[in-house]
Amino acid sequence: MSKPYYITTPIYYVNGVPHIGHIYTTTLTDCQTLYQRFKGVDAFMLTGCDEHGMKVQTTAENNGVTPQQWCDQVAEKFKQCFTEFGLTNYNRFIRTSDEDHIKAAQNIWSILDKNGYIYKARYEGWYNVSDECFVTDTNLKDGVNKKGEACKVTIDGDVPCVWHSEENYMFKLTAFKDKLLEFYEQNPSVIVPSFRQQEIIQFLQTGLQDLSISRSKAKIHWGIEVPNDADHTMYVWIDALTNYLTGAGWPAENKLWPADVHVIGKDIIRFHCVYWPAFLMGAGIELPKKFFVHGWWVAADNRKIGKSLGNASSPQEMAQKFGLDALRYYMLSEATPESDCQISDDLVVVKSNADLANALGNLLNRCVMSKILPDQIVPKHEIIDKLIKNEAEIGPFETQLKDLVANVNKLFGLVDASMENLRTKDSLLAIMAVVYQINSLLQVSEPWKLIKSSTEQHSLIMYTAIEAMRIVGTLLLPFLPIKAPVILRQLGIPESDWKINAKILTFGYLQQGVPIGTEKGILFQRIEMEKVEPVKPEPKPKKEPKEKKEKKPKAENAEAVQVKAEPEKQE
Ligand code: MSP
């Protein structure tokens, strides 16, 4: 028996409120989970929170609560937010403070240790306490700390650093260089998009350093204890990445692993595509099948949407103004893993009005309104059978009809191929192309006039429109989980046929002569621009805004740090 499809989001830090980045990653993962489930695949979706580390420890202290209490509050906020956004299809919301996760993280550590990939070393250098990482000399300049005393500060951000020396556990990342390169050579499409795979290959060829994987417990007590050494806690990334194994039930059972896809943002690619496969190789565990790496959401002025939201509405505000499915549609139809993507009230409004209210909504209305479909049944006629069988001589609209049927019959294949790589934009482009084609068939054939002149042609056109719309509505189920069911209900399609497979999505599956749905109503309201309140203007920036740097893996910053002790264990 094949294992369930296993898909994951990153686990989210608990030091902020959920923002558009978190909503998008979870939405995309939710969409793929639903897509698989509508295909009949048993899909397991994992999401959750990344809870350990210095920042959480300090934030909790500053708020007068324990780290556990702090994490409980924020994890709850994430869950509530996902519920508000209808993102409720995950199977588990994992938290790194969960008991089974702590055991899994300690277990993988012990295996890596047993296999000789962990050693102890003295680390010495300038330490960025805020980001919990050592900083190389080249990334430092002279500056002052909060008390005004002279000290080294980071070049980016002027963060004061302190000279720090401590004994840490190291992971022999360098031992995996060749194996990782070989893995990426043998699996050329494991990272989507492919240019990201090239970036990782280049990094592997030039940039590998062993990785510090523990911190002294005296400094960071809010972490998972290193097995057999109560003085150390695990560095957050070995703890965090292992969540994917915990979610799979590892080590007790292994019914989900390997993951079919890890969905991640571009800023955490090295952690996922270098460290994680190395940890897994070191522990003798199979590697994930795919990494899908998306870009960032930026405001209409191309600046990353800041926490202050001075340059954009919050996703919650947008959802309230435009509706959940309109926002979801915008994100899934605009984002491509190749680049960053803009989002703003105006952009969502324009897209929603054009695609959803005008094209899709009007089309549905035309398919079911009694003025155009007086009998309120799916038309029945021999000439429809001729079209389904692709026979000739079906009247004046033969070319348009046959083109449309051909495209409708190709649609599932196209959508399925793009969803293989989570390319929702391509899927929605293909679906919308058919919507526009159905609309233009109606425009050309004017079935509202055919009622009087030709029952045969009226039946033919209306069956085609309704049938094509059924296929469109079915394929839209994972993308518009609230509105696609409305389409199908208005057409009268029984829930037993809300499935994504070749049989159901072949033109002609819809029975002739059955009643259409009794449910009526407008699918998407047009959004009037003037009713949308303008976004508050951003306070004047102090200096020219620069693009936010992608998160640097912490080990990279630690390049120049001297590793003084000899490895305790040899390879
Ligand atoms: N905790 C780590 C992940 C550990 S996974 C084992 C983390 N958390 S995060 O909360 O900072 O980010 C989670 C995800 O949100 C990342 O994939 C990140 O790229 C994504 N986004 C954060 N801001 C974003 C945008 N503005 N746009 C799109 N996604 C971005 O990193």
Q: Could you describe the 3D structure shown?
A:
With 571 residues, the chain is of the alpha/beta class. The protein has a domain at 344-497: Orthogonal Bundle (Isoleucyl-tRNA Synthetase, Domain 1), CATH 1.10.730. It is 43% helix and 15% strand. It has 19 helices and 18 strands. The strands form 5 sheets. A 6-stranded parallel β-sheet has the order 3-2-1-14-15-9, with helices on both faces. Strands 4, 5, 8, 10 and 18 form a 5-stranded antiparallel β-sheet that branches. A hairpin with a 5-residue loop joins β6 and β7 (150-154). The longest helix has 24 residues, at 345-368. The radius of gyration is 28 Å and the shape is elongated. Bound molecules: 5'-O-[(L-methionyl)-sulphamoyl]adenosine. 5'-O-[(L-methionyl)-sulphamoyl]adenosine (MSP) binds at residues 10-13, 20-22, 24-25, 50, 240-241, 243, 264-265, 267-268, 296-297, 304-305.
Helix vs. strand class: alpha/beta
What is the name of the CATH class of the domain at 344-497? Mainly Alpha
Number of helices: 19
Report the β-strand fraction as a percent range. 5-15%
Uncertain segments: 537-550, 552-571
Bound molecules: 5'-O-[(L-methionyl)-sulphamoyl]adenosine
- In CATH, the homologous superfamily of the domain at 344-497 goes by the name Isoleucyl-tRNA Synthetase, Domain 1
Number of strands: 18
Organism: Hexamita inflata
GO molecular function: ATP binding; methionine-tRNA ligase activity
InterPro entries: Anticodon_Met, Met-tRNA_synth, Met-tRNA_synth_2, Methionyl/Leucyl_tRNA_Synth, MetRS_core, Rossmann-like_a/b/a_fold, tRNAsynth_Ia_anticodon-bd
EC number: 6.1.1.10
